Amino acid sequence: MIAAVKKNAEQKMAKSLETLKADFSKVRTGRAHTGILDHVTVEYYGNPILISQVANVTLIDARTIGVQPWEKNMIAAIEKAIRSADLGLNPATHGDLIRIPMPMLTEERRRDLIKIVRGESENAKVAIRNIRRDANEQLKKMIKDKEISTDEEHRGQDEVQKLTDHFVAEVDKLLQLKEADLMAV
Fold first, then answer.
1. Is 183 helix (H, G, I), strand (E, B) or coil?
2. In this protein, which residues make up the domain named Ribosome recycling factor (predicted)?
C-alpha cells in the first residue's frame, strides 16, 4: 500500500522534473539549437501541425537554424509561425530555405531570462510539494480506513519527504546549470 503511494508520487515528481526540463529548453541561450522550434505550430491544410512534421529543421552553424519545408507553398506559413511564436527570432527566406539567425543576448535580456527560469523552477517545486501533500493525504486516509498503522504512516511520510527533498534538489541543480548557461557569453 505505502509502496504504491510512494511509487505514484515518485512518477508524478519525475513528470514535473521532465516538464521543467522541457520549459528550460524553450528559454533560449545565445547558441542555436533546433529544440527551440519544437513547440511552434504552423497551419497545414487548416490544421495546426508542428514545424518538424512539415519541414527539416537543422543547424546551419552555431548561431543559425535552417528550416527546409517539404512543400514550397509552406515557406511563408512557416516563416509567419516562427515570427508569431514570440521567441524573439527573425527568420529570413533564401530560395527554399528559411534561415533563422540567433541574436546575441544583451545583459538585460539575460537577467530577464534568469528571472523567467527562476519562476519556472519555483513552479516545479510547488508542483512537487503539492504531490507530497497529496501522497501524505493518501497515507492519512489509509490510517482512517485502518489499512495501515500510525508507525507505517510516519515511515511512509518520511519516505515521501525524502523523495520530495531529492526532486527539489534536482530542480535546484537544473536551475544552476541553466543560469550558468544563460550567463555564459
1. helix
2. 20-183
Q: What is the pTM of this model?
A: 0.66
Q: State pLDDT tens for residues 107-122.
A: 887 888 888 889 889 9
Amino acid type, 176: Q
CATH of the domain at 132: 1.10.132.20
pLDDT higher than 80, residue 185? no
Q: In sequence order, which residues have a C-beta less than 8 Å from that of residue 145 and are 6 or more positions away? A: none
Burial (0-12, 13-18, 19+ Cβ within 10 Å), 77? middle
Question: How many structural domains compose the chain?
Answer: 2
Range of the domain at 77: 34-101
Domain of 38, CATH number, reads 3.30.1360.40
Q: pLDDT exceeding 90 applies to what percent of the chain? A: 36
Look at residues 7, 2, 12, 16 and name the one whose alpha carbon lies nearest to residue 138.
2
Identify the DSSP state of 30. S
